[in-house]
Structure formats: structure tokens, C-alpha cells
Write a structure and sequence with these properties.
eight-stranded parallel barrel; two-stranded antiparallel ribbon; 45% helix
Length: 304
């Protein structure tokens, strides 16, 4: 918890009433924002989305179980609350203690307020911006000119999805699959999002393969039915099988499930790497471990 409940209730009222001036004054009276906290070995099993217009949710940033936090200014934040959401995020970042995980902000498209958001947020301790509704390389390059922070992107338009490899040479680390917006862009119904649907499996597979081929980290889509935990679990298992590194989540419970499913058996990997480096190829439980198998386990260890 970052602020006392009484102060959070005040912030809730200010956000609800759109009191930009008062929120700005609170920021001006606050401390200098802390420096960005380096994260030596970040993990991306679960990225929890927290909207900037929800002070009660922002107040729990220091206790959320997700691997990384996505502070949201885009979808899910009403247009009339975009500015107060931005100021609210700034206020919490100004007072946020070290939490040992990456913080990113999902801004609005650059032509829809994103440029101003970046200009404001540059002073705060975030690790990256997540750029939504990307259609091509030019938008990402423009954002890279505006910031020295990392840039991650959402793949949720037909243009971006069918040209994923074009992002290969950009200094982008994470690619997020926005399945709902992508289907909108393809004029397809969301009712197609079924575990047994081969079209959805093909979309997920292509996204993973081309993300990996672009040397980017693929993050799976947010499952909106947050009360359907068994459904969420099954989608996590499928997306892990198809090569995703993790998924976006919207509740702490989803984060805990994702962390469990996308965890790796690092203890086994450690034993195999150690034994291989001592005596070369060997057999373990019926598996012949030669150079390619060793390299894969070593890769898992290096990723954490």
C-alpha cells in the first residue's frame, strides 16, 4: 500500500470529478520522482494491467503478484478521464517504493495524445512504453525518438500482424498480442476465440513464430472472462505450448495462475547443464543429452 486509505479516497473523488488542477498541485508539492530501478533478470510470465483512473488499484502496485505491471492509459480509460489518469499515475510513481519488477505504461497512439503522455512521463521511474494500435515501423521509430526508455508494442492491427518480421531491427523487446482488436481489424467475431478453433491456434502460432524470428519476446493475450479461472488456466497452457513467454492479466489471481503455468523447471535445467559441462553428452531418464539439448537448457537458465 502506497498511500493511506483516506488519501486514496480523496484521489478517487478528484479523478471522478476530473480535477486536473488539484492533481497537478499534489504532484508539484510531492518529492522528486525516484530513479528507475534496474531489474537484473526480469520475468514476463504475467503482466498485470492497472488503469490510471483507478487510484484504489494503483495503491496496490507494491504488493501485486505479477512479474511486471502495465499502467494503462489507453483502452479501459474513458476519454474524459485520460488526463486525470495520467496525473494519477504520475502521483503514484512519484511515491512508489522499489518493487523489484518492471513498470511500463500503455500510452495512447501518438496521434491521440500519446506524444504528450510520453513528454509528461519521462520524469518518472518507468522501464518502457507500450505503444498500441501499431500499423508499421514509422510509428515505433517516432516514439523511439521521443524517449530513451524501452519501447514495447501491441500487435492488434492486420497491418502489424502480417508484417511482424518488419519490426526485427527495431530495439523493441516485448510484443503483445491484442487478440480482440486484431479480430476487429480482420472483421472477425470475438466468438471465434475458442480453444478448439484452428484459426485462433494459427493466429497464436504465427504470432509466436514471427515474434521469435524477430528476436522479440511474445506475450499472449488478456483473457477478459476474469471469473472463469479454469478457462484462463487452459488458455495459459495452450499459449505456453505454442511458445508464449507469458500473458497479460487483469486480476492478481490470474497473475498467480500465469506465474505457475509459465514457470520453468530451473532446478532440472541447472543439474543438466552442470553435468554436461563436467563430462559432455550423457543419458538421463531415457533422454540422450547432447550439445543441442544442453544449449536449450542453458538458454532456459540464462532467461531465469
Amino acid at each position: 500500500m502506497i498511500f493511506e486509505p483516506e488519501f486514496v479516497e480523496l484521489l478517487e473523488r478528484l479523478v471522478e470529478k476530473g480535477e486536473e488542477g488539484e492533481l497537478s498541485r499534489l504532484l508539484e508539492r510531492g518529492p522528486t520522482p525516484p530513479a528507475v530501478e534496474p531489474i537484473p533478470t526480469p520475468r514476463y510470465r504475467s503482466g498485470l494491467i492497472v488503469s490510471g483512473n483507478r487510484p484504489k488499484h494503483l495503491n496496490k502496485l507494491d504488493e501485486l503478484p505479477a512479474d511486471f505491471i502495465i499502467l494503462n492509459l489507453e483502452d479501459g480509460v474513458p476519454k474524459k478521464q485520460k488526463k486525470v489518469a495520467l496525473l494519477s499515475i504520475g502521483l503514484f510513481l512519484q511515491h512508489l517504493p522499489k518493487i523489484g519488477k518492471e513498470l511500463m505504461v500503455r500510452i495512447n497512439p501518438l496521434t491521440e495524445g500519446g506524444r504528450g503522455e510520453v513528454e509528461f512521463l519521462e520524469q518518472f521511474p518507468i522501464h518502457s512504453y507500450r505503444l498500441p494500435k501499431v500499423k508499421g515501423v514509422a510509428e515505433v521509430e517516432e516514439l523511439l525518438q521521443l524517449t530513451k526508455k524501452r519501447v514495447d508494442i501491441s500487435i492488434e492491427t492486420a497491418e502489424a500482424f502480417f508484417n511482424l518480421l518488419s519490426f526485427r531491427d527495431l530495439p523493441v523487446k516485448l510484443l503483445f498480442l491484442g487478440i480482440y482488436d486484431l479480430l476487429n481489424s480482420l472483421y472477425l467475431s470475438h466468438s471465434l476465440i475458442q480453444l478448439e478453433n484452428p484459426l485462433i491456434s494459427q493466429i497464436l502460432s504465427r504470432f509466436t513464430l514471427e515474434s521469435r524470428g524477430s528476436r522479440k519476446v511474445p506475450i499472449g493475450f488478456v483473457y477478459q472472462k476474469y471469473r472463469d479461472l479454469e478457462g484462463f488456466r487452459r488458455w495459459c497452457l495452450l499459449q505456453r505450448q505454442l511458445g508464449m513467454e507469458g500473458v497479460g492479466v487483469i486480476t492478481p489471481t490470474q497473475a498467480q495462475i500465469a506465474n505457475q503455468i509459465f514457470s520453468r523447471d530451473l532446478e532440472l535445467a541447472c543439474k543438466i547443464v552442470e553435468e554436461f559441462e563436467k563430462r559432455g553428452p550423457f543419458t538421463r531418464d531415457g533422454l540422450y543429452i547432447d550439445e543441442p539439448i544442453y544449449k536449450n537448457f542453458k538458454f532456459l537458465l540464462e532467461k531465469g
